[in-house]
Design a protein that fits this description.
Oligomer: single chain
Strand order of the largest sheet: 3-4-5-9-7
Protein name: Hermansky-Pudlak syndrome 3 protein
Number of strands: 22
Shape: flat
Number of helices: 30
Helix content: 40-55%
Largest sheet: 5 strands, antiparallel
InterPro entries: HPS3 (IPR017216), HPS3_C (IPR029438), HPS3_N (IPR029437)
Strand content: 15-25%
Pfam families: HPS3_C, HPS3_N
Structural class: alpha+beta
GO cellular component, one term: BLOC-2 complex
Length: about 800
């Protein structure tokens, strides 16, 4: 490719990605870099030549420069020295580089020919004076390379099959000047992630996922890279949260090794091997073979000729096995221990380097043996634990990273305490990272119970370092074995400084565990029930905890069930309204709390549904509550099953406090008067059911009316109560509904036809007003009358 007088060197690589086909092209001159991506054009884009799209097939990309002619440029160069400014254009901005690219097809177009379009990713222009070490003519770019990283877990057998199945995760581009190298990420955004400064002039460089290998005039140097850190963030959305972490992409690079060689000329990489080609120059050999003492002789010509023949340049090919990841990891960990006591950033840096080495190796599982992969996983967890130790002990701005690294290590809280807390050291101070980890871990529902010694140690830590968190920490399921009397003493000290309702409830819970009912009642009488319910909403674990995925009531909840059930229900409603407990969790909570009852749905749960119906405003939840209550009322009435405990609210209470419960219609009371005397046993459930059905909703009629008609048809004249009920029901519905809507509810089998004359009489209240001509609106009554007369005939 040519651009004016400049020769462009192209580096092509076809990469499988989410697109059917994607082609990344990297192009360099002596001081310019241009990276493009060819994509399949959209159908509307295929009809235009705005971007120079051409039919698919083998492509020939021509890079054209519309600048001045060669002759004019030469005249300017003879008189002036032109120095361009350095330019860096990323993403869409790189299209401003004014280097047009034309795609030309070398095949005849066919019906199924695909079209491509060009997208600019990166343009960077350097100037000769950017290098402080060499002359202008020595400042040239070299070692342009594209490095793809595929998503972890992709598998395949043959290399071709693997290439087709693997999904491109990240793409990186590396290029180098004699004394500096640049590594860019070409993912969702184009950005510079690392800059490498060489100690001497470089000849060539090769990039791998773990290292950057650079050759100079007399050495082979190895640097760390940040590809795995960038790829990890592209692959895992939970990186850099409280769940997972990864060393930053912008972490300073460091030199790992430097090996001396004579005359390195070329380098390449294959799996775990570095292939190095060297050439020994004449002066090197002469200097190396020079005798210790010069001999004076007249045969200098013969000696010179013999020396020239012996000093012919020699080529050497080296295959260098790179150090295994595990070995290099161990060396870096051992070296980091020299900084462990100093608690400096250097320790974190070295451990981060070691962590990235292991992470990079695990991102290429295809090349690992099963035993090697298991060893790397152990090293990964070990490095996470070491990083957690550093962030928990060092006072750094990233102290919060102690939490995700400890989590990735898989260590339990008790093990972290052993690693961090010194035994018998009463003067030990606790850094922010350790307290951040401990607070967040204990505030979650962990399936781990600390021993009595460990729990008391945690109590002591928070009494010293963060006493305000103590009420919440004592509610953790991990702290079940803490000494309650010691906890009460610590809480009393905190109460002098910052009293709260959560603290009071925590003291009451500890008093209950101690068996001190007098202290318990004193604490519970400190606030009104409404305030106590809000306190439970602020700390739900006072009432319930999660163990193995199940909701487990606490000892305090069990005590409230027996002594203050209204407070327990009010607290559960507060939890639901504050999104701390959903309906399913409430079901499990009350059923487990009332396990002594044989009933599938305990009365306390029905009390919760009724209380929640009063305050709930979510339509979906309201419908669920109404269905659950009606089903429960019907089940009790049909089974003549009385509640095991007295309901907290009567029908009158619900009618006065909840608009979903309506005044019972008089005709319903009339119908119930012909019922059996045994119905009086379920009078409360019957009245609540009637009140719900008489509430403001036309939903229940849509469901109950067809059911009532069906039962009447099946029972016939054997059940006069049903017939009477249907007559009264139809009378009410005919008044409430428009006649057209009402007729659509009636069954088609004629069961309800018997009531049509009566309904015609009831519908007189819905006659439309007369119009200006004295005629009424659509005569829906005439249709109703015709249907009635036809059925009578």
């Amino acid at each position: 490719m040519r651009s004016g007088c400049q020769l462009w060197k192209c580096h092509f690589r076809i990469l499988r990605s989410a697109f059917p086909a994607a082609l990344h092209v990297a192009i360099t001159t002596e001081l310019d870099v241009l990276i493009l991506k060819l994509e399949l054009a959209q159908p509307h884009a295929a009809r235009t030549e705005r971007r120079g799209a051409a039919p698919g097939g083998p492509l020939r990309a021509g890079v054209k420069d519309e600048g001045p002619s060669t002759h004019a440029l030469q005249l300017e160069l003879d008189e002036f020295i032109i120095c361009q400014k350095p330019v860096e254009l990323l993403g869409e901005e790189s299209a401003r580089c004014e280097i047009p690219v034309t795609l030309e097809s070398t095949e005849l177009p066919t019906e199924h020919t695909e079209r491509f379009q060009v997208r600019y990713l990166l343009f960077r222009c350097f100037t000769p004076d950017q290098s402080p070490f060499g002359f202008c003519e020595e400042t040239k770019l070299h070692s342009l390379q594209l490095l793809p990283v595929y998503r972890t877990g992709s598998s395949g057998t043959a290399q071709e099959e693997t290439e087709n199945k693997r999904e491109l995760l990240s793409l990186f581009c590396f290029f180098s000047l004699p004394h500096a190298g640049y590594l860019y990420s070409l993912g969702k955004s184009v950005e510079l992630i690392s800059t490498y400064q060489y100690s001497e002039k470089s000849e060539q460089a090769v990039l791998t996922r773990q290292f950057l290998h650079v050759i100079t005039s007399e050495s082979l140097q190895c640097f760390t890279v940040r590809c795995s850190a960038a790829a990890a963030r592209d692959e895992d959305p939970y990186i850099d949260t409280t769940v997972k972490a990864c060393p930053p992409v912008a972490l300073d690079v460091c030199t790992l090794r430097m090996q001396l060689f004579i005359g390195p000329r070329a380098i390449c990489h294959f799996k775990n091997h570095i292939i190095l080609l060297t050439k020994a120059d004449t002066e090197d050999i002469t200097e190396r073979r020079k005798p210790a003492r010069r001999m004076l002789s007249g045969k200098t010509d013969s000696i010179k000729s013999r020396t020239n023949s012996e000093s012919e340049p020699g080529w050497n090919l080296y295959i260098i096995n790179t150090v295994s990841t595990i070995q290099l990891y161990r060396e870096m960990v051992d070296y980091s221990r020299t900084y462990e006591n100093a608690r400096t950033e250097s320790c974190i840096h070295l451990l981060s380097e070691a962590h990235l080495l292991v992470r990079a190796a695990l991102m290429e599982p295809r090349f690992l043996r099963p035993d090697e992969e298991e060893e790397l996983l152990r090293a990964f967890r070990e490095s996470c634990a070491a990083l957690g130790d550093c962030y928990s002990r060092c006072d750094t701005k990233d102290y919060h990273l102690a939490l995700p690294y400890y989590r990735m290590s898989g260590l339990p809280v008790a093990e972290v305490l052993k690693r961090t807390v010194s035994e018998g050291d009463e003067t030990q101070t606790y850094e922010r990272g350790f307290m951040f980890y401990l607070t967040h871990s204990l505030n979650e529902d962990l399936n781990e119970e600390l021993t009595k010694e460990s729990a008391n140690k945690v109590l002591q830590i928070f009494c010293v370092a963060d006493p305000v968190q103590l009420p919440h920490i004592l509610c953790s399921p991990c702290m079940g074995n803490v000494c309650p009397s010691a906890a009460v003493r610590c809480l009393q000290q905190v109460e002098k400084v910052m009293p709260s309702v959560v603290l009071t409830l925590t003291k009451a819970s500890m008093a209950l565990r101690m068996g001190d009912l007098m202290m318990y009642e004193h604490e519970m009488d400190s606030y009104k029930e409404t305030v106590l319910a809000c306190g439970f909403a602020r700390q739900p674990r006072l009432l319930r905890q999660h163990q193995d995925g199940a909701v487990v009531p606490t000892e305090l909840a069990a005590h409230l069930k027996e002594t203050q059930p209204a407070l327990l229900v009010a607290a559960a409603v507060a939890l639901h309204e504050n999104s701390k407990m959903d309906l399913e969790e409430a079901d499990s909570f009350f059923k487990m709390l009332c396990s002594g009852s044989e009933r599938a749905v305990p009365q306390l749960l029905v009390d919760f549904w009724e209380a929640l119906l009063v305050v709930c405003s979510q339509e979906e939840t309201l419908q669920q509550l109404l269905l659950r209550l009606i089903s429960q009322y019907v089940w009790r009435i049909s089974k003549r099953q009385l509640p095991e405990t007295k309901p907290l609210k009567t029908t009158e209470d619900l009618i006065n406090s909840c608009n979903h419960f309506g005044l019972i219609f008089p005709w319903v009371t009339c119908i119930m008067s012909v019922g059996s005397p045994s119905d009086k046993d379920c009078h409360e459930d019957i009245s609540k059911l009637q009140s719900l059905l008489c509430g403001p909703s036309t939903v229940w009629w849509n469901k109950l009316l067809p059911e009532l008609c069906e039962r009447t048809r099946l029972a016939g004249s054997d059940c006069p109560a049903l017939i009477s009920s249907l007559q009264e029901t139809l009378s009410v519905v005919a008044v409430e509904l428009e006649l057209r809507d009402f007729l659509s509810l009636l069954p088609e089998d004629g069961t309800a036809a018997f009531f049509l004359p009566h309904l015609l009489h009831c519908s007189q209240k819905q006659l439309p007003p007369c119009n200006s001509e004295g005629l009424r609106g659509p005569n829906t009554r005439s249709g109703l009358r015709e249907k009635s007369e036809g059925n009578e005939q």
